[in-house]
Design goal:
The protein is an alpha/beta fold. It folds into two domains: 8-49 and 295-398, Aspartate Aminotransferase, domain 1, CATH 3.90.1150; 50-292, Type I PLP-dependent aspartate aminotransferase-like (Major domain) (Aspartate Aminotransferase, domain 2). The chain is built from 14 helices and 14 strands. The protein has an eight-stranded mixed beta sheet with strand order 2-9-8-7-6-3-4-5, with helices on both faces. Helix 3 (50-68) packs across helix 11, helix 5 (106-118) crosses helix 6 (133-140) and helix 5 (106-118) packs across helix 10. The termini are far apart. The structure holds pyridoxal-5'-phosphate. Pyridoxal-5'-phosphate (PLP) binds next to helix 5.
């Protein structure tokens, strides 16, 4: 019997327009022990600094237990924001005051909050196409409409951006992932970063820079963040502890203007009052005790090996005509075959017990079916090789 509360007509238009993402079904399939999943964007559990966290936790619970277990400030632990502001300057040349930082419950929460405060339902937002699925979900939850701009191997195409702005002249902001983009693995070149900032400034559009993977570079040289290049206070920067500490902390941070900080706090108070004080204390000690800088090289070494193994396996086992990106960092490879339909191929892949995320999920209009996203960080080395062999067969059969 359906109650008045659960009958569909009682739900809001926005929630009725939302659909479960492909990630959800993929997370379920991970339960099958024979399945090899390149689907979820999961860090490898070996990348978690378990011993460091244990040590820091034991010290902090003894010295500061009563503060660490209390509610915290909406913008986050002051000591963490001070430590982070220093680190942003040292590591990324991003100049900011601690008061320009808001801690959020993962950067995912920041995406939701920023969608809510920077745009009205029905407004347009520009993103790369493809773009991060979780951002599409977060922005859509506020009724925001997304317009994707095509990319090439150097990032968002600037001529396409200009053409899109002619058609949609007043987007509320532009959402971009300059480093090792999720899903494509592509990094924006320095020239492209500068051009993008210029176009945004000329057209009065603020930029949302999402950078969860910036510290996970396995080859090539560091490129400056948009926020570091920006001279006009036009960029809001999102970072997270999920990939350099652990996603279980659910801690991310936004660096932005004092005005946006104030508005973010209003929405955050409606969502969860404040992020986890326990996570904030631990994250502060993880940075200020130097643990983070000693640990990240281990993560880089682990993931570089896995990236190389996946690329080598793709070269060996995928049939001719299948193309793939060669990311310099991050967690994903983007595989494309002209004329293929990766949505249709997924059924065969599941039969062969290998999972990927269909490319169409990452396009705001869902209208591109030739690609798939593969995660290379989660699976064991043996499973990477075996999974790509299976995927090769899926492509072989799709071509018949
Ligand atoms: C591009 C991007 N942004 C944001 C997030 C959200 O991360 P978290 O909420 O764990 O900080 C992710 C997670 O995978 C991501 O890939």
């Amino acid at each position: 019997m359906s109650s008045n509360l659960s009958a569909n007509k009682e739900f809001s238009k926005i929630v009725n327009s939302m659909k479960p993402s492909a990630i959800e079904s993929i997370l379920k399939a991970i339960g099958d022990p024979d399945m090899i999943s390149f689907g979820g964007g999961l860090p490898n559990p070996d990348s978690f600094p378990v011993d460091d966290v244990k040590r820091i936790f034991n010290e902090l619970i003894t010295s500061s237990g009563r503060k660490m277990l209390q509610y915290g400030a909406t913008e986050g632990l002051n000591a963490l924001n001070i430590t982070l502001a220093k680190r942003m300057k040292q590591q990324l040349s991003i100049e900011c005051e601690p008061s320009q930082i808001v801690q959020t419950t993962g950067s995912q929460e920041a995406l939701y909050i920023l969608g809510k405060i920077l745009a009205n339902p029905g407004d347009y937002v520009i993103s790369e196409a493809p773009t991060y699925l979780g951002a599409i979900t977060a922005f859509r939850a506020s009724g925001v409409r997304m317009v994707g701009v095509e990319m090439d191997k150097s990032g968002m195409k600037i001529d396409s951006l200009r053409a899109t702005l002619k058609k949609y002249p007043n987007p509320k902001f532009m959402y971009v992932l300059p480093n090792f983009q999720n899903p494509s693995g592509i990094s924006m070149t320095l020239e492209r970063r500068k051009e993008l900032l210029e176009v945004a400034w000329e057209n009065g559009i603020s930029v949302l820079e999402d950078d969860p993977y910036g510290s996970l570079r396995y080859s090539g040289s560091h490129l400056p963040a948009l926020k570091a290049l920006d001279r006009n206070d036009n960029v809001t920067y999102l970072g997270t502890f999920s990939k350099v500490l652990a996603p279980g902390f659910r801690l991310g941070y936004t660096i932005t203007t004092p005005e946006i900080v104030d508005k973010m706090k209003l929405v955050k108070q409606a969502l969860d009052l404040a992020s986890s004080t326990i996570s904030e204390y631990l994250a502060e000690a993880y940075i200020s005790g130097g643990y983070i800088d000693r640990w990240i090289p281990n993560v880089i070494e682990l993931y570089r090996r896995k990236r190389d193994l996946m690329i080598n396996s793709l070269e060996e086992y995928l049939p001719k005509g299948v193309e793939f990106t060669r990311p310099e960092g991050g967690m994903f490879v983007w595989v494309t075959k002209k004329g293929a339909n990766t949505d249709k191929m997924l059924e065969e892949a599941i039969k062969k017990k290998v999972l990927y995320v269909v490319g169409s999920e990452f396009y705001p209009d869902g209208d591109n079916h030739e690609s798939m996203r593969l995660n290379f960080t989660y699976s064991s080395d043996e499973k990477i090789v075996e999974g790509i062999k299976r995927l090769g067969k899926v492509f072989d059969n799709a071509g018949k």
